[in-house]
Fold M28 family metallopeptidase.
Amino acid sequence: MGTCATPRYTTKISNLKNSIHIVDSNRVMTYAKTITSKELKKHLYTFSSDAFEGRKVGEKGQKLAADFIRSYYKKENIKSPPGISNYYQTIPESFFSNKINASENVLAFIEGAEKPEEVIVISAHLDHLGITEDGKINNGADDDGSGTVALMEMAQAFKQAKKDGYGPKRSILFLHLTAEEIGKRGSAYYTQHPVFPLENTVTNLNIDMIGRVDDLHQDNKDYIYLIGSDRISKELHYISEKVNNTYFNINLDYRYNAIDDKNHYYSRSDHYNFARQNIPVIFYFNGEHDDYHEVTDTPDKIDYDLLERRAKLIFATAWQLANQKHRVVNDENNDLLK
Ligand SMILES: [Zn+2]
């Protein structure tokens, strides 16, 4: 009988899974419950209203949308991050091409109590397609109003926890990105001009469309697609699974995470700019539907109970990442996988 110098892969994975301990399990749902379909709906009806003219990057409607988000954080007393003037990271016109006007990412920040320098980034894009040539407004309720209002509600939940003395150990940045629809330029700008060093950016949880149900799930609506969760840190993947198994049991559908998936969703939203910097990411997505990038993507078609459940899942995942003992480890540095 020989000795086995390196454990088998399956053993390594089970060791990794066993190393994950859910934190604050009695507390997470207390604050997750403050994320309600009612408030999500209220915010989304405003954010995707005609008043914001389809939120085209650099145009009046997008500026109004950015101001709406900023006003919310001010009212909730959730701060602008240090080094950022009044919640806006301005992207100059010179960064864009095709005569796009200057635009802005909107940032809100909850500082960690124990490891403030380590940051969890939760992102969604605030811009959309604007007005069609024949004058119809692209409301973009799902894309990405759903992600935008989910961030607002999550930030409120973390803020309430902090007020009660249960603030996160690590910091959380709520990053509302502009210019996603013209090629992920807002996240490109952020990752080239990061407000917190990228090496201290623990994870990016990116949300782009979580309020609808696609054709494949009409009979089992309690699902969400996760993309990218196992690419850089398997620990992140198993944390995400364990959080879901502990609190929600939503069907996490990984079909679009296949390396050879022809849709290439992994490279199609803002998380990709973080992944390119070797930062572990999860992309949350409900899949495409008939109203995707059409003027019919309106707030009356959102399933608000589902939006609430999905936002709670992402909130609980962020809570775990912000509060567990060690920061999530990339696979190349993970001793349990060696
Ligand atoms: Zn989108």
About this structure: The chain has a mean pLDDT of 96.
